[in-house]
Amino acid sequence: MCTMNKPYVVCHMLTSLDGKIDGEFMTAPQCMPALLAYGNLRAFYECTATLYGTVTMAGSYSDGFVSDLPVSDIIYPKEDYIAVKDAANYIVSIDPKGTLGWQGNYIEKKNRPKAHVIQVLTEAVSNDYLAYLRKFDISYLFTGKKQLDCASILEKLYSLFSIKRLMIAGGGLMNWSFVQEDLVDELSLVIAPVADGNTTAVSIFEKADFHSARAPATFHLSEVTKLDGDSLWLRYTVG
């Protein structure tokens, strides 16, 4: 396991019996106890930051996708910008090319703590998008030229924001990106007793073309807990 300065990283997901993390199974009545348990268990891990991929952010947290940005008269250096470094909670938004829309630099959702937004970018982002983030005083980090450097993300979250415990919560591409580089300490799965056989729904882990080849990731079961409604909570250490 990695020994660099980084947060403790737990990947915490709600899944169907067939390993999916989205789709119709989430609306089934039999999924509701698992869904409730999944939300409640977030507090168990005491993470001060949660990381999501671009698609998850656009669908659930950001103001969709931005378009037709005004041209900025100010040229911003492609350097990290720390708007708030002492927030109680953070949402880490993976957005390599700078596509997500925003209405402010904090996100508040029902039953979730208020969280300051940290945008994670690559140098492929436009200057106009940096100006857009500055307008809302949103923090942002650079972690690669065209592709994300996951190790750099963790190092910067630890050193610049003092984040000691980080939760990764999807999607499948983001989950695998960190497992791929052996950067996840624990996998937490809440499994609902439902399945829909949907072959287009996203799986817990999804490999992209840009991911390098590696041996299959291995996990070691540390705890099994039966939850309400025939759901299960499985905890694994990674590696």
Write the layout of secondary structure elements.
Layout: E1 8-15, H1 32-45, E2 49-52, H2 54-60, E3 90-94, E4 106-107, E5 115-121, H3 127-135, E6 139-142, H4 150-161, E7 165-168, H5 172-180, E8 186-191, E9 219-226, E10 232-238
Parallel strand pairs: 1-7, 1-8, 2-3, 2-7, 3-5, 5-6
Antiparallel strand pairs: 4-5, 8-10, 9-10
3D architecture notes:
Strands 1, 2, 3, 4, 5, 6, 7, 8, 9 and 10 form a 10-stranded mixed beta sheet that branches. Strand 2 (49-52), helix 2 (54-60) and strand 3 form a beta-alpha-beta unit. The mean pLDDT is 95. The N and C termini lie close together (7 Å). The protein has 239 residues and is of the alpha/beta class. The radius of gyration is 18 Å and the shape is globular. The protein has helices at residues 32-45, 54-60, 127-135, 150-161, 172-180, and strands at residues 8-15, 49-52, 90-94, 106-107, 115-121, 139-142, 165-168, 186-191, 219-226, 232-238. The chain folds into 2 domains: 1-47 and 170-239, 3-Layer(aba) Sandwich (Dihydrofolate Reductase, subunit A), CATH 3.40.430; 49-163, no CATH class. It contains 5 helices and 10 strands; from the N terminus they run E-H-E-H-E-E-E-H-E-H-E-H-E-E-E.
